[in-house]
Amino acid sequence: MGHATAKDPKSMVIRIGAGEVGTSVSQLATDVRKVMEPGTASRLKERRANKLKDYLAMCGPLGVTHLMLFSRSESGNTNLRVALTPRGPTMNFRVDQYSLCRDVQKIQKHPKGMGKEFLTAPLLVMNNMSRPDADNNSKVPKHLESLATTVFRSMFPPINPQATPLKSIRRVVLINREQSEEDDGTFVLNFRHYAITTRHTGVSKQLRRINAAEKLVTTKNSRQAHMPNLSKLQDIADYMVGQDGEGGYMTDATSG
């Protein structure tokens, strides 16, 4: 179970024509459901007989705010529709390229993303979603740029930097807009999903090791929750050995 709240947006990732999109698109839909965790129907089972109106009828009772619809055209193109319920709008995209999660993990030496990363929503980062010189006569009008930004932002719960613990942010969704290769005024959206690890900066490697040791050892004063106070010690060895036989991180050893 994730940590989604009643106010967070909720989504359903659906394959339209579940038996016709193919195994790769089916796996892509499964991967996108992981991206949208925890506020999504991760165990949704589509049937061939299900129509779009059937899913729309369930949105109200279940509190679903967004639909992501994958389909395949007769020419073999993979399409994605992102719809806000119950009255829209709906954005249509053609999926040019995609990489499946299992393929990415195969080429990684230490793959991540199989633990607690999906208990909290990802941090959304959007780049180049609008142009300063865009207007209503542009290939992509200014109001459509604003609409796309609003729709994508509404798909993920907002994160308050002052109130959200840094360690709770374990994933990032990056949406980057680039000029298409045809240079005809159209754009390509790169949708990327990352598992991240947060670390303290400006702290030496030695102090990070001491801090890690503090977290592993429980003392009477619960000092593992704080940085060590070395002001009264003459040498770092005094801290590692402990004062008057108390504390410290040295283990007893005998030789023979």
From TrEMBL:
- Pfam families reported for this sequence: Brix
- Stored InterPro entries: Brix, PPAN-like
One GO BP annotation of this record: ribosomal large subunit assembly
GO molecular function, one example? rRNA binding
Q: Which domain of life is it from?
A: Eukaryota
One GO cellular component term noted in the UniProt record for this chain: preribosome, large subunit precursor
Brix domain boundaries? 11-256
Checking PANTHER family in the record gives: PETER PAN-RELATED (PTHR12661), SUPPRESSOR OF SWI4 1 HOMOLOG (PTHR12661:SF5)
Q: Tell me the protein's name.
A: Brix domain-containing protein
Originating species: Acyrthosiphon pisum
Upper taxonomic lineage: Eukaryota, Metazoa, Ecdysozoa, Arthropoda, Hexapoda
